[in-house]
Design brief:
Length: 340
Amino acid sequence: MNAHTSIRTDLTVREAVGEDVRIDAFVRAHPAATPFHLPAWSRAVEAGCGQRARFLIAERAGEIVGFLPLTEMRSPLFGKALVSVGFAVDGGVLGEGVEPLATAARAMAYPSIELRGGPAPIGWTVESDTYLGFSRPLAADEEAELLAIPRKQRAEVRKALANDLQVVTGTSELAAEHYRIYAESVRNLGTPVFPKRLFREVLATMDADILTVRHKGRAVASVLSLYFKGTVYPFWGGGTEAARALRANDRMYFALMSHARARGCTRFDFGRSKVGTGPAAFKKNWGFNGIPLTYARWSSGPARDVNPLNPKYALMVRTWKKLPLPIATLVGPWISRGLG
């Protein structure tokens, strides 16, 4: 869809090609934007997973007033869909032109469209009972942060702080170590790991870094975080089997709060978790209240459903947990690149 489509006399919607810099400026200036709206995120997904990025913009008098980033998800296992935006927890329409942008997305002739956050177009299926988002302000200093954590979890953090653990931060120099830990962590959850290149592209093109916790020189927990408008987003994190006894994950997230505060952040976004799951309970124990996330979906037939809690994937999840780590790490990226 390259031609302009008139919606009103003062608003046009079109597909933007080669305008990433212009779109980036609009996203950074918009108060509701997330790092997943940035063109750099979509380009990292495109380069790392081979899923094409397409950008729809709404303009008035030549100025961008609305934006819808889309990822063309294509998978022999999970089908085809347009997702806003691929491999992210947020996205959806940013700014004005919700209805014309949605109409333009439907004209791309995909069987299913998923909008993660943002306003829902009229008539689309709205889902707000599957995922919770967890976010709160950072405290003024470490002691205040400890007091902001509920008593039971605070005791766990104090035990973690007393353990013989070292914290290091960096970017590409920690990437291989982080990937090894993350791959083990998601294998244990029954989920295929994402391609290495996705992580490398995000580190290379976005404001992101890695925080790793080591015990006796060996990494046991690690998280790759995004930074955007004063908020830290711990996005890809996990720990080895040894991390639990060492309380390394507790040390990791508390250290990240301090690290983010030193970087000038004032808010900690713990990301999304499914309602009623262990990760949701873990975040609540840290003093984060879960807020329902609203996603919108349009489909011309059976909607794509890649939720791992879907009963049809139960056997796949159980089998994946039992795979030897080298095999899971080798095969996982081929599968996960189509999850989106």
